[in-house]
Specification:
The chain is mainly beta. The protein has no helices and 20 strands. Strand 5 and strand 6 form a beta hairpin. The two termini are 53 Å apart. The model has no long low-confidence stretch (mean pLDDT 84).
Amino acid sequence: ATTFTAATTFTGGISGDLSVDTDTLHVDSTNNRVGIGTTSPLRSLHVSGAGDTGLMLQTTNAVDDKEIWEIQAAADGSNHANLIMRTRVNAGTGGSEAMRINNNGVVTIPNQPAFFARHTTAAAYTSAYITNWSSVTYNVGNHFNGSTGVFTSPVAGVYQLNAMIGNNYANGIGNYDVRVNNTQVAGLIFDPFAGQNTWATNVLVGQVKVSANDTVRIYVNGAGYPDNASWTSWSMCLIS
């Protein structure tokens, strides 16, 4: 072992293995591998540790000093490894989990923009946007306004949209449609039932491609009477 007490400039290479503090850093010259926390690396770069082990990529900009991402191999209660990607501000601990791949290969993305809301009270509308979706089951990122019924897309992408509207046809035909930035989306329209004079439920399932900060709402053309939270709901979730 060699101890360096001052900066040294090497004009040639180092042959053979190289170890720093035994296994803090180890270069396996035979197999051309690098180990961190191990003297027997099994891959080109092998990071090993007794606890949660991770890799970090961090910016050094003085104005915006934060980790871009961190990959952590963490064990769950059954000691099965999970691959976790985190984002966090400044060089602290913890952070927001952005993605997890568990030991069964299931991928979860907990911050994906999504909401599910139900219409609070049956009410009459005439050529207007439906409001009062205040019975909100979940609202990831708080991009949906339950009072106004407006979803504002935080990022551009394709969103899955599911809607169910119970309408009282005795009070209006309930010709509903989805609108992005106040423009009707072709193919996302509830066609009213002819000859109905009582309650009936429409279901609409589709995908909407929007840009960042676009607004999405449900509109009723003419007279409509959407039902309460048990029969009238809609949801959106970013899928790509």
